[in-house]
Amino acid sequence: MTRQLLALLAGNLLCACAFAQVTVSDAWIRATVPQQKVTGAFMRLQSATPARLVAVQAEVAGRAELHEMAMDGQTMRMRRLDAVELPAGKPVNLASGGYHIMLMDLRRQVKDGETVALTLTVQDGAGKRQDVKVSVPVKPLTHSAHAGH
């Protein structure tokens, strides 16, 4: 009986460790002007195991969606995505001009200097989902992640 219990506990521990561990860095949200209903959130994600970012929620937005900017012939187009792949051990940038998060139907102005709570939903290869809560600073309208590079 003790052996079975130890085997069960060890199996559960391995399952917990195998779940995607996602780190978030360089996160920021672009400030808005009064009455503006849309803004973007940007960050770098890295997962220890293969995973997918499948959803986002934000306290300040009625909707939050994953988007991608990409060239379509001679035109830059933005499209909604169902998920963003997070390959094991490789950083994925959510940045202007590529993958990013759109915060829509804003409930209020998002001001420089404040922080906004985001919940990122990550799904592992087995379909298990985990929420990653992030407190994201708001940067000025003129902020660029590439400034000074």
Descriptors for this entry?
149 residues; globular; 11% helix; mainly beta; single chain; disordered N terminus
Topology:
Layout: H1 2-18, E1 22-30, E2 38-47, E3 51-58, E4 61-72, E5 75-81, E6 84-86, E7 92-94, E8 99-106, E9 115-124, E10 129-139
How helical, in percent, are the residues?
Answer: 10-25%
The outline comes out as globular
Major sheet attributes: 10 strands, mixed
Quaternary state reads single chain
Strand content: over 45%
What is the number of E strands? 10
Helical stretch tally? 1
The low-confidence runs, each spanning 5 or more residues with pLDDT under 50, are 1-19
CATH class category name: Mainly Beta
> What is the CATH topology descriptor?
Immunoglobulin-like
* CATH architecture verdict: Sandwich
Total domains: 1
Q: What sequence of helices (H) and strands (E) makes up the elements?
A: HEEEEEEEEEE
Rounded average pLDDT: 86
Distance between the termini: 61 Å
Structural class: mainly beta
Q: Kindly report the name of the CATH homologous superfamily.
A: PCu(A)C copper chaperone
Rg over CA atoms:
18 Å
Task: Describe the protein in words.
The chain is built from 1 helix and 10 strands, in the order αββββββββββ. The protein has 149 residues and is mainly β. The protein has a single domain, classed as Sandwich (Immunoglobulin-like), CATH 2.60.40. Strands 1, 2, 3, 4, 5, 6, 7, 8, 9 and 10 form a 10-stranded mixed beta sheet that branches. Strand 9 and strand 10 (129-139) form a beta hairpin. It is globular and about 45 Å long. The termini are far apart.
